[in-house]
Design goal:
6 domains; Beta-Lactamase; alpha+beta; 25 strands
Length: about 700
């Protein structure tokens, strides 16, 4: 009884209660053993019994203490490992050989959107898979009792939303019971989304480079076709049998020119004229045209942002973005619907940027165009910005959205699409917010006024495309110019070094083998400090600009161009004042010269003069008063009484008198000439104040 008491005390209380019970039992035993008359043999026997009891009691206390310590260590170890499993950020579960879930940790429960592990226990693992074929692949490992790693599967949460999980597992033998499997799951939905966005961005970049290269070579071919078709049209008589085919060649060239410009817009290789814009004003200016374009069965709604910030972009390109997205929305609503254009100031944080690669956190101006049309599935959304991809069949070119993508990216912005089948589509473009103060010293657009038809200057023509170089030489020679031609930069420098006469203009391509046009102009300017430079290109590769924006002091004629455009541009540059090379190059080196003094790009000097004039539309008798805004020898800008239509023919009467200075040219007589307003009257004529 005493031994049992000691054992129980040591088991439940530890070695200290066991030792106390041993002492109590030993004391009681000694009291009853040594009381009364005893023989020596009985006395010795009692002592032996007490010693044996004491030894056994100590052994029991030690054994129970060691066993208790082992069990406590095991309990702590189990608690630690359970804590690792229960608090792990990855889903961990155990299932039998048939795939029936036996246990799951909280991370797995949360990953699949359930409330507790009880809801998952007893379910078949295959019921969590979105694709049965993927479950069969996992089941093969179960049947073979083989470990597996990093199986990527499409799974379904409790609410039906899809997730992407990466699964690893190992078999746990259990004798005749058949064993079980331990599975480890990681939710890689966000990672997969980022990987897809990165691959999409890389694919678009590769396609853009290819498209830009094709457009560059195609531009040269178009220039030759277009130029010689213009030669034919000039030389052919009115006979429609001959003139008709030549005109068709010219029309086809114009359509191909539009195609190459769209390819350049997608590849972000076109040259832009960015300005500080208010998107609310840009959208408002397009509303009237959009209303006519989308039809009466579609409700057009504008939701302008309050106190919206400014963006820096090319206004013509932003117009094209709005038009292309609106046309796309119209085609998605064949039965009518609602088209909403929204602008807003937004601040995007790191969490948003992490899921919308390659956008960076910051302040943006959002331009959102949404519709209530048929929407798109995920596969279509992954390809909508690819050139020549269309869902409209023969009615679509596949370049509308790719052009939008290129314009937004070249403007420093980002564009994303959100769509579901039968639930409409929303395109959201984010443009970086900039300071709203317009650069007062920005160069003004040149007026497209008539210039001298012929000249006698000497032009150095540098073009690596033989046919295009021959065409430009022939045409310019018919205009009275003397042409020196070279096929590359090295040959051009040899001509400059050996030619004894004056060279008034360097007309050079930008992208050439060996030495590009910018490097050639720099070397020529060292030999001929007063030479004027006109670049020709449709694919600049940052040689004369950055991110599609021309450097200060650069004059560019974009390919493909018409021969009359070549004539006018050459004449404009020859009539302008040359730019010192150190001023033109300072924009590339980052010096502060241009910050102190803005240099207009090869443009005649303008004077801000407010002089009275009279004008009238051609054919009318009554004159209307106006006031000049500024005047240069290439033309004038004046304030009219009303907004003039594009291509309006006007007569302008302006009487000027100036004092002749020593060495100056004689004053020109008064002007009463016909003038054709260009296609963008707002650049020339302002509405009444």
């Amino acid at each position: 009884m005493f031994a049992v008491a000691v054992m129980v005390s040591a088991w439940y209380g530890g070695w200290k209660p066991g030792l106390a019970a041993t002492s109590f039992a030993l004391t009681v035993s000694a009291y009853y053993s040594f009381t009364g008359e005893q023989t020596p043999s009985q006395y010795h026997t009692a002592i032996a019994h007490l010693a044996l009891f004491f030894a056994v009691a100590l052994l029991i206390c030690w054994f129970n203490a060691a066993l208790r310590a082992t069990q406590e260590s095991l309990r702590r170890s189990e608690s630690n490992f359970r804590s690792l499993v229960m608090n792990a950020p990855y889903g961990i579960c155990r299932c039998d050989a048939l795939g029936i879930l036996q246990d799951a940790n909280p991370a797995l429960v949360a990953m699949f959107g359930y409330g507790s592990a009880v809801e998952l226990t007893g379910r078949h693992l295959g019921s969590l898979y979105a694709d049965a074929q993927q479950w069969f692949q996992t089941a093969d490992y179960f049947h073979a009792r083989k470990a597996f790693n990093d199986l990527t599967t499409e799974c379904v949460r409790k609410d039906g939303s899809p997730i992407v999980a990466r699964i690893s597992g190992r078999s746990i033998p259990n004798g005749k019971a058949g064993g079980s499997f331990e599975l480890f799951m990681e939710d890689v939905t966000e990672t997969r989304t980022l990987e897809m966005q990165l691959r999409q961005a890389q694919k678009m970049e590769a396609i853009g480079r290819l498209a830009g290269g094709i457009a560059h070579d195609f531009n040269n071919l178009l220039m030759v076709i277009s130029g010689y078709s213009e030669f034919l049209l000039e030389r052919l008589g009115p006979d429609p049998r001959l003139r008709g085919p030549a005109q068709e060649i010219s029309n086809a060239t114009q359509r191909a020119t539009s195609l190459t410009r769209q390819l350049l817009a997608f590849s972000r290789k076109q040259m832009l004229a960015p300005k500080v814009l208010d998107l609310n004003e840009v959208v408002a200016e397009n509303l009237k045209m959009l209303t006519r374009m989308i039809g009466e069965d579609i409700d057009l709604v504008m939701v302008p942002g309050h106190a919206i910030g400014a963006v820096r972009a090319d206004p013509g390109q932003i117009d094209q973005v709005i038009m292309n997205l609106a046309v796309n929305a119209r085609d998605a609503m064949p039965q009518g619907g609602k088209l909403t254009i929204e602008t807003a100031n937004v601040t995007l944080d790191e969490n948003f940027a992490r899921t919308h690669t390659p956008l960076t956190a910051g302040d943006y101006i959002m331009l959102a165009i949404s519709d209530t049309g048929i929407g798109m599935d995920n596969e279509t959304q992954s390809r909508i910005f690819e050139p020549f991809f269309t869902t409209k069949g023969s009615k679509g070119t596949g370049l509308g959205l790719s052009t939008v993508y290129g314009i937004v990216k070249q403007s420093g912005g980002f564009i994303f699409v959100d769509s579901q089948p039968q639930h409409g589509t929303a395109f959201r473009a984010y443009f970086p917010r900039v300071d709203g103060r317009e650069d007062a010293a920005a160069a003004q657009d040149s007026l497209g006024l008539p210039r001298a038809d012929h000249g006698q200057e000497t032009i150095l023509l540098v073009e690596d495309e033989t046919n295009l170089r021959r065409l430009a030489r022939q045409y310019l020679e018919t205009q009275g110019y003397k042409i020196l031609e070279a096929e590359d930069g090295a040959a051009a420098l040899q001509i400059v070094d050996g030619y004894r006469g004056a060279i008034d203009l360097l007309l050079t391509d930008v992208i050439m083998p060996g030495m590009n046009g910018r490097e050639l102009a720099t070397n020529v300017a060292k030999l001929l400090p007063g030479v004027r430079v006109l670049y020709m290109s449709g694919y600049t590769e940052n040689a004369i600009g950055h991110d599609g924006t021309l450097d200060a002091g650069i004059n560019l004629l974009q390919k493909p161009f018409s021969l009359p455009a070549l004539k006018d541009r050459v004449r404009e540059v020859l009539d302008s004042e040359p730019i010192p090379m150190e001023a033109a190059m300072s924009s590339r080196t980052g010096s502060s010269l241009l910050a102190e003094k803005k240099v207009p790009p090869f443009r005649a000097r303008r004077f801000n003069l407010h002089l009275p004039l009279r004008y009238r539309p051609l054919g009318e008798n009554s004159w209307r008063p106006g006031t000049t805004e500024n005047i240069s020898r290439s033309g004038l800008l004046f304030q009219a009484q009303e907004l003039l239509h594009a291509n309006a023919q006007l007569e302008i009467s302006l009487w000027c008198c100036r004092q002749k200075l020593p060495g100056s040219r004689p004053p020109r007589s008064s002007v009463a000439e016909k003038w054709s307003a260009p296609s963008k009257p707002k650049a020339r004529v302002s509405p009444p104040r």
